[in-house]
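Question (not urgent): is this output format expected?
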Amino acid sequence: MLDDKRIRIITGHYGSGKTEFAVNYSVKLSKQGKKVVLADLDVVNPYFRSREKEKELSKLGIKVIGSSIKGSASDVPAVSGEVNAPLQNEDLEAVLDVGGDPAGARVLGRYYNYFKEGKYDLFFVINANRAETQTVEKTIEYLREIERISRAKVTGLINNTHLLKSTTVDDVLSGQELTEKISEITGIPVKYVVALEQVAKDLPKDIQGQIFPIKLYMREDWML
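Got this back:
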């Protein structure tokens, strides 16, 4: 059961798997009977955009908001004005997929007034296999920069350490060690431990954070 704040912001470094998490998170919310809006606010990364799965997600009852310029081949730094609707309407569950660097986080500035303390969650996705988030110091520095630019505080850490379809339990646990150290230093709790379904079932049940099994929506079957 997902019981986070109604407005969820998902961010993380390029390659962290934040979009895959955002899509899976939206699907789980929808299966709980929630009215879900997934807003693609990533104006930095032109690949693996959540809006690319609009047709598939709409069949699950999830509304996807992307670039204000229609067409998946149009990658421009523009965000639809429709984003205001799920932020204002308390009957909707909002999931914001935000660009994973300070430039991407700057997009959040226009919605700052909606991010009242206790009214939103900002989840920082960590993949310990990425060069930029392999150490505690570099990861915290990156996290704090995202907070500074977005003017919003990270409320939860997500361990999404992976090697795509080659991910093992040991990979996840290695990332968990890093994530827990960051949690200890910052005081930010480990909220979710993400892994492919076949890996998640073998994770220790007493692990810090909620185990979050996922499917690979963003990668085609032929991709590694």
